[in-house]
């Protein structure tokens, strides 16, 4: 599975490390009307624009155990971060693709946040939010009362609110995983393994190396 942003010229930007999870937010479009003393009423207006968000990191050095693509194609973390800045400034949509899934949609980069963590110099962690793009539609609407004519009106897509609620993140252990590897992938610093161990000590037991595939670990 690969996560790709493709520009209008067909050039792909491959995210080198797959995120652990992807959040796709869908909302129902509602117009709220206040009818005198009767209170507020909601009228459905179709689906709102979807948001796709995920977090990962750009590694300084290639590690075939979790990096996608080829070693010689691994972008410098600073260069990759600047590329996201370029995408953020674009006025034309990109195409977001998750291979081996049905996700293949036009999007804009709505926001991204970069984080530099100690212990793993050179790596850059990031969070990114994409908003699916759809073309503006022209529809016929009734004109003002009395003239009997129709006028063209442009349907404007309304922006949904971003979900700001914090969620507890978990990680499902895979074959070949270790706590240090999980800490590197999820926290950007392999030396943070002990924090994961302390949170999951009852599940893992006295030996931090005894994690088993299928166990769901709580992350700091």
From TrEMBL:
InterPro entries to which the protein is assigned, alphabetical: Bact_Kbp, LysM, LysM_dom_sf
Domain LysM: 169-219
Gene3D superfamilies per UniProt: LysM domain (3.10.350.10)
Name of the molecule in the record: LysM domain-containing protein
Annotated organism of origin: Paenibacillus azoreducens
């Amino acid at each position: 599975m690969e996560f790709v942003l493709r520009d209008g010229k067909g050039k792909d930007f491959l995210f080198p490390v797959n995120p652990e999870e992807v959040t796709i937010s869908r909302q129902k479009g509602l117009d709220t009307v206040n009818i005198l003393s009767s209170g507020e009423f909601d009228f459905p207006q179709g689906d709102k624009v979807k948001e796709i968000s995920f977090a990962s990191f750009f590694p300084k050095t290639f590690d075939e155990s979790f990096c996608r693509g080829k070693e010689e194609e691994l972008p410098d973390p600073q260069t990759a971060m600047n590329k996201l800045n370029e995408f953020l400034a674009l006025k034309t949509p990109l195409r977001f693709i998750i291979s081996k899934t049905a996700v293949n949609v036009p999007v804009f980069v709505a926001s991204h946040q970069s984080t530099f963590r100690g212990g793993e110099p050179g790596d850059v962690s990031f969070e990114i939010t994409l908003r699916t793009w759809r073309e503006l539609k022209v529809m016929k609407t009734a004109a003002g009362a009395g003239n009997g004519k129709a006028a063209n009106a442009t349907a404007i897509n309304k922006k949904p609110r971003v979900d700001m609620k914090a969620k507890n993140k978990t990680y499902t252990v895979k074959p070949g995983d270790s706590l240090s590897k999980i800490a590197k992938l999820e926290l950007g610093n392999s030396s943070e393994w002990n924090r994961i161990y302390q949170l999951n000590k009852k599940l893992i037991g006295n030996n931090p190396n005894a994690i088993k595939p299928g166990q769901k670990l709580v992350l700091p």
